[in-house]
Amino acid sequence: MELIEIFISYGLIGLFAIGIISSIIPVPTEMAVLGLIDVGKNPQVILIVLVTSSIIGAFLGYLVGKYELRKIIPFHDKEKERRMQMHFRKYGALFLLVSPWIPLIGDLAPVVAGIENYETRKFLTVISIAKIIKSIAIVYFMVYFSFRMADWWEVLIKYVRMLFI
Fold it and tell me: What does the alpha-carbon distance between residue 41 and residue 30 come to, in Å, rounded to a whole number?
């Protein structure tokens, strides 16, 4: 939790950094968004920063998969590699659309797309749509429910303390 607080203390620059990082490794952006909304940052600016950084992060993950990991993890069975690429070309768009909503595994989807040589233009189109949808949902949810969530957290903490203290 302290890591998220560090990102929040840097404001929108921290959100931009965590947005890039979270597209490669599993670091939740939701708490940073909530923190920035709670301190009064403009939700539209938060949305723009979150979308931009998430797409950049996903593209960096794609490039790492496409140009670096393919060198490190060579396929030994060419037929199996060909079948995997055909399978990813067939179902890859659907996988990339839902990947931002899948905890942990979804963060690796851009890397997998790169490893499988998924078409760059198609990847950017699909992942952009997916990241925009998720970012709008996160910011909307946090703006709409942020004042209620603070009360809910206080009640939850009170009950947890009663159970364990």
Answer: 14
**46 pLDDT tier (thresholds 50, 70, 90):** very high
Q: Which amino acid is at 69?
A: L
What is the pTM for the complete model shown?
0.79
The structural domain count of the chain equals: 1
75-82 mean pLDDT? 74
Query: Containing domain of residue 99, as a range?
Result: 2-164
Q: What is the 3-state secondary structure (H, E, C) of the chain?
A: CHHHHHHHHCHHHHHHHHHHHHCCCCCCCHHHHHHHHHCCCCHHHHHHHHHHHHHHHHHHHHHHHHHHHHHHCCCCCHHHHHHHHHHHHHHHHHHHHHHHHCCCHHHHHHHHHHHCCCCHHHHHHHHHHHHHHHHHHHHHHHHHHHHHHHHHHHHHHHHHHHHHC
For the chain, the C-alpha Rg in angstroms (whole number) is 19
